[in-house]
Design a protein that fits this description.
Beta-galactosidase, Chain A, domain 5; mainly beta; 2 helices; about 5% helix; five-stranded antiparallel β-sheet; nine-stranded antiparallel β-sheet
Length: about 325
């Protein structure tokens, strides 16, 4: 695998290339993976939906649905943008589609490149971000370290470590928001999930506190016309939690929850040309409903780990 760093596209870009896969990371723009392509039938095929340019990121990040963004210190919505923690009430102020603020506070912050390590068929990229209590609704400080590990066989592993650098305890939920694509019509993609129930959401997509049976895709079935914006409590850990399969081309995506990601969020936008497969450490509105909420004490660290594997007929 080869690594290049460029700065001629409006931002710093880390390029990782092999015969079958190509990746591009934008450290300055939320530390996102903006490109993941694979060689299919002699042509490069985009596996993720992201941005056309750095300016596209800056202008359209929220309207495009936060593709590939890191979600921290909370995920999805916070009811009315408010929560209570240790006897105090806070109101998030960064961004909301409506009155419910969404997707955390670091999705567009610059990340520093701590290390790029190349070892034969593996490349590791370590990025860091310092959150300095910039939003009055989250007056805590913490350090976020994201390590992407790219393997030549098509496996991406994402390790996240969060250090509480402040003097007070802080609430935390962690996640990632990638959109995936396979060849052809989404309705024919086969989806398989390690879940038999989902959280019941109200009209604002906030959990009601109950669950309902949801085993539609437990054994794997075509998506067809199913509408998906579901949060699924996972049954196991350190196993494949979700698979996406295109039977005609043979391409398969296998997503694995390895450490501290007990929830899977699946979302298909109205265009129905991609699907978000997101591992979450807590449920939507966890700052209020406490579902999966972590409390990190001063000086302590919390770690999270997941992986995404691509298999296709060209793979040896």
């Amino acid at each position: 695998m080869q690594v290049r760093v460029t700065s001629d596209t409006g931002t710093t870009a880390i390029h990782i290339e092999s015969e079958r896969f190509q990746y591009v990371i934008w450290p300055d723009l939320g530390g996102i993976i903006n490109q993941w392509t694979t060689m299919l039938d002699g042509q490069w095929f985009d596996l993720i939906h992201a941005f056309n340019s750095a300016d596209d990121f800056r202008e359209n990040l929220t309207s495009k649905g936060f593709p590939s963004c890191k979600l921290s210190p909370y995920v999805c919505r916070i009811r009315n943008s408010r929560y209570q923690f240790e006897g105090k009430e806070f109101k998030i102020g960064k961004f909301g589609y409506d009155q419910h603020h969404i997707h955390g506070l670091v999705y567009d912050l610059p990340f520093s490149v701590e290390e790029i390590r190349q070892e034969d068929s593996v490349v590791k990229v370590v990025l860091s971000c310092e959150y300095q209590a910039s939003d009055e609704g989250f007056p805590f400080t913490y350090r976020l370290i994201v390590t992407y590990t790219f393997e030549e066989n098509g496996t991406l592993t994402m390790h996240t470590a969060v250090w509480n650098t402040g003097a007070e305890s802080m609430p935390l939920v962690d996640g990632w928001h990638p959109y995936f694509k396979l060849p052809g019509d989404l309705s024919r993609w086969i989806l398989k999930t390690d879940a038999r129930e989902c959280l019941v959401l109200d009209s604002d997509l906030i959990p009601t506190g109950t669950t309902s049976p949801f085993d539609t895709f437990y054994h794997g079935s075509a998506i067809e016309t199913t509408k998906l914006d579901h949060c699924l409590p996972l049954i196991g850990s350190n196993k494949v939690a979700c698979s996406l399969i295109h039977t005609l081309s043979g391409i398969q995506l296998h997503a694995k929850s390895i450490k501290n990601y007990p929830y899977l969020q699946i979302f298909i936008p109205p265009e129905r040309d991609r699907i978000a497969i997101e591992f979450l450490s807590g449920a939507p509105d966890a700052f209020n409903n406490l579902l999966g909420l972590q409390i990190i004490y001063p000086g302590e660290k919390m770690e999270f780990l997941c992986s995404y594997e691509i298999h296709h007929p060209n793979q040896k």
